[in-house]
Design brief:
mainly alpha
Length: about 170
């Protein structure tokens, strides 16, 4: 299922690409996405302790924010984190996909919600089924509590707009 809408929101497209997103806000979205992915990364690392691809992707994402690596490196790291997810149980798979989406924010800012959505799915998959809804709600609230003030309204609005294509994980 795609997590990006067919019609892109100009608020999530950088100014240099014809949108209204500043570089500063792009970095804030990337950092928030990385924080969301890192919050559930233990679900992957507990299952695959010898595979550092999702953690490496998060590190590349942070290096991109600091201006130390080009967007292309971040894009490649996203593919590596996504590849690490293949064939794994849902908690580990979703945690790796969250890392892949988070580092992909360097390439497309709207991937921030993908990172958050997969982190919510990982949190829900990592507990018994009768506790999943509560775990997803706790993760969603935790994420919202870590939103930078400068992009908070943008992200919350985007969550409302795109929840349906993000498995409704942003619905309250």
């Amino acid at each position: 299922m795609p997590i990006l809408p067919k019609e892109r929101d100009p608020r999530l497209i950088t100014i240099r690409r014809g949108g209204t997103l500043t570089d500063e806000h792009h970095r804030l979205l990337a950092d928030w996405a990385l924080v969301c992915a890192e919050h559930v990364l233990h679900l992957f690392e507990e299952h695959q302790p010898g595979d550092s691809r999702p953690r490496d992707a998060i590190d590349v994402g942070r290096a991109w924010i600091r201006g130390e690596v080009p967007m292309g490196d971040a894009h490649r790291a996203a593919f590596q984190a996504n590849a690490a997810a293949r064939g794994l149980p849902d908690p580990a798979k979703f945690a790796a996909l969250s890392a892949g989406q988070a580092v992909a924010v360097a390439h497309v800012a709207a991937h921030d919600l993908g990172a958050a959505a997969y982190a919510i799915r990982a949190a829900g998959a990592g507990v018994p089924a009768d506790e999943a809804a509560q775990a997803r709600a706790r993760e969603r609230q935790w994420q919202r509590g870590h939103l930078p003030a400068a992009v908070r309204e943008l992200v919350l609005d985007d969550q409302q707009r795109r929840s349906a294509i993000c498995w409704h994980v942003f619905d309250d």
